[in-house]
Amino acid sequence: MYLEHFGLKELPFRLSPDPTFLYLSKHHARAKAYMESTIWFTDGFVVITGEVGSGKTTLIETFLSELEKDVVVAQVNQTQVSPIEFLQSVLVQFGFSPFKMKKAQLLATLNEFLIEQYAAGRKVLLIVDEAQNLSNRVLEEIRMLSGVETTKEKVLRIILAGQPEMNEKLDSPELLQLVQRVRLRFHLTALSDEDMRAYILHRLDVAGSHGRQLFAEETFPVIYGYTGGVPRLINTLCDTALMGAFALEQQEIGLTEINAAIEELGWVDFSSRTNRLRHLMTPAQTVGSPREALARIVVTFQGTNVEERELSPGRLVIGRTPENDLQVDSKFVSRHHCQIVTTPHGSTLEDLNSTNGIYVKSRRVRRHHLNDGDVFVLGKHEIMYLDERAGKHRAAPQEADSPEPERDDS
């Protein structure tokens, strides 16, 4: 192979989902954060969609490699199955031999296992990849499993990952009840041209290039034009180009080598090769009503307004790192610190297991129903919540009803 020729220790563009090579673009980081949220909350499950080769499986493998030991995982990849076969697959992942069980036995065994794990202080996570192939009957079984609960909370965390057809299936009237259980939906887009360049350099660096840029700068626009920023296509083209350069004893991949690889693969430019480009450019989605602003928050630091953000139906995650919906760059703020869940009926503030917590009126809270004018504190930042639905009352206080007593669900 070409490893010695280019001074590399590993193949940089293998198609296998190796977490070591994961490049976290902003969208990939957001999808990973949503996966991680299933460990914090059990109020519904998460759906991650993306085109073939967009990096879903690598993202899942990375997420799994970072889980704590108290998380028990069932990962199902074979999805063209009957409801009974699906339940059997899940139980096999949990260490059972269920092939002679009838459906009632399968469900009873699963329920008993989930309750036992909860009692032992362990979290149970079900991940289904290629979920777009699941039949409506199997999806209904998943909905029923998501309802298993103790007196305090539901006990099964669920992530569905699949191609864009999954969204079309979820939006069908037949699956209305299931969609109501979905807490977050996110579409994983292709890489931007800048992210694609960083992705290539990242994989080369992990493979041992030590900062040497094996691809000439003028090759990146061409690579992007023929791959559309899809990671799997980038890997295929770059690996083919490296092989071609190795055969010709070239030390760098220039336009000649890239064009030769494109010709060898028989590719035309990406936009001509697929009619699904529009899916790749679809922004992240969450389940909810139309995206009108129902409220807003104002972030202040030492008495100075530093940011203002409108709140529409859905979730706004606040934390220290850029992949959050709202970044608060402070050493007192955790990576994913808290979130605000907004519905047509109001907004709720929830702590995401942060180190330093969130405070309302000097009291640390885990969960708090936000009222118009509430101020909550993250480290040295203060955030005021303004409910636009209550704006008329702020403008005409003499007509307002008696103030609603604060409700704290912490």
Short description:
The chain is of the alpha/beta class and 410 residues long. The chain has helices at 3-6, 26-40, 56-65, 83-93, 103-119, 136-145, 165-170, 176-179, 193-206, 219-227, 231-247, 255-265, 270-273, 277-280, 391-395, and strands at residues 45-50, 71-76, 123-128, 156-162, 182-188, 295-301, 304-311, 314-319, 326-327, 338-343, 346-351, 358-360, 363-365, 367-370, 375-378, 381-387.
Summarize the structure in words.
- There is one protein chain.
- This protein has helices at residues 3-6, 26-40, 56-65, 83-93, 103-119, 136-145, 165-170, 176-179, 193-206, 219-227, 231-247, 255-265, 270-273, 277-280, 391-395, and strands at 45-50, 71-76, 123-128, 156-162, 182-188, 295-301, 304-311, 314-319, 326-327, 338-343, 346-351, 358-360, 363-365, 367-370, 375-378, 381-387.
- It has 410 residues and is α/β, with parallel strands linked by helices.
- It has a 6-stranded antiparallel beta sheet, with no helix packed on it. The chain has a 5-stranded parallel beta sheet with strand order 2-3-4-1-5, sandwiched between helices.
- Strand 12 (358-360) and strand 13 (363-365) form a beta hairpin.
- Helix 4 packs parallel to helix 5 and helix 10 (219-227) packs parallel to helix 12.
- The radius of gyration is 24 Å and the shape is globular.
- The termini are far apart.
Kindly provide the radius of gyration, computed on alpha-carbon positions and rounded to a whole number of angstroms: 24 Å
Strand content: 15-25%
What is the 3D shape?
globular
Largest sheet: 6 strands, antiparallel
Helical percentage: 25-40%
The DSSP helix count reads 15
Number of strands: 16
Amino-to-carboxy terminus distance: 59 Å
Decide which structural class fits the backbone.
Answer: alpha/beta
Mean pLDDT: 84
Low-confidence stretches: 275-291, 392-410
- Order of strands, widest sheet: 7-6-16-15-12-13
